[in-house]
Design brief:
The chain has seven helices and seven strands. By secondary structure, it is of the alpha/beta class. A five-stranded parallel sheet has the order 2-1-3-6-7, with helices on both faces. α1 (about 15-30) crosses α5. The protein is globular and about 55 Å long. Bound molecules: flavin mononucleotide (FMN). Flavin mononucleotide binds near residues 18 and 91.
């Protein structure tokens, strides 16, 4: 059975645009037969990597910090897919999700391995990494804002790219909640299909990708509505 581990990295937790996107996506994955677990990263005890490298030296594979991360690494070991779901914060992932990502270092073997023109680390012997899936939404209405985040995930996957990438500009249009049947029903249905396709095919179909790339709202309309809303709270 396919196992999906979803990491909701929004500091807003379950009341977030990230959750609104994840909900139908994971529902689709579940209905296609996957076992799905979602972690609300905000609610976990995850310290920052201290850069001590003890997980590579004196205690190979084991971090010196005793917090929730050991359990999360166990979940990584059995997951087929790890869905990194994050709001875009300053062109990257939100800080606590980044902390979680950094704390996966114990899973890597310290030796430097050169493949082609690039040096990397292999997973530690016996460790298996889930395939990554990137889900992000942002406050601005253009896709270009995701460029750095997409490049980071391309490098994290040694140039292969994640198994699936779902990018949602103008994410605040979702109103931080999943509301099927409303104006974004077409989008939620495509997300549901995307979750099922990931589990069944290991990728998203070009048709589903095309629908998910459609703007939720035209940029001018979105900006005007956002500015009106800011003005009304400021005055
Ligand atoms: C600290 C901070 C940094 C942000 N940086 C960006 C950014 O670089 N680009 C962007 O388009 N939106 C940015 N945003 C807006 C969020 O991406 C946007 O509000 C998003 O819809 C939040 O999603 P969530 O509800 O899933 O947390 C930022 C918001 C915050 C609070």
């Amino acid at each position: 059975m396919t196992r999906v581990l979803a990491l909701n990295g929004s500091p807003r937790g379950v009341r977030s645009n990230t959750a609104a996107i994840l909900t139908p996506f994971l529902e689709g994955a579940r209905e296609a037969g996957a076992r799905v677990e979602t972690l609300i990263v905000r609610d976990l005890d995850i310290g920052f990597c201290q850069g001590c490298f003890t997980c590579w030296t004196s205690t190979p594979g084991v971090c010196c910090q005793k917090d929730d991360m050991a359990g999360i690494l166990d979940k990584f070991q059995v997951a087929d897919y790890a869905v990194f779901a994050t709001p875009l914060y300053h062109y990257g992932m939100a800080a606590k999700l980044k902390a979680l990502l950094e704390r996966t270092l114990p899973l890597l073997d310290p030796h430097l391995v050169r493949r082609g023109r690039v040096t990397t680390h292999d997973p530690r012997k016996g460790v298996r990494f889930p395939r990554l899936v990137l889900v992000s939404n942002c406050g601005f209405p253009e896709r270009d804002h995701f460029r750095s985040l997409v490049e980071q995930f391309r490098q994290l996957t040694e140039g292969r790219g994640p198994a699936a990438t779902i990018l949602v500009p103008a994410g605040e249009a979702l109103g931080r909640r999943y509301s099927p049947g409303g104006p974004f029903d077409w989008f939620y249905k495509a997300l549901h299909r995307a979750g099922a396709e990931l589990v069944k095919e290991g990728r998203l179909s070009p048709e589903t990708q095309e629908i998910l790339a459609r703007p939720l709202v035209p940029p001018e309309v979105y900006n005007e509505a956002a500015n009106r809303s800011f003005d009304s709270t400021l005055t």
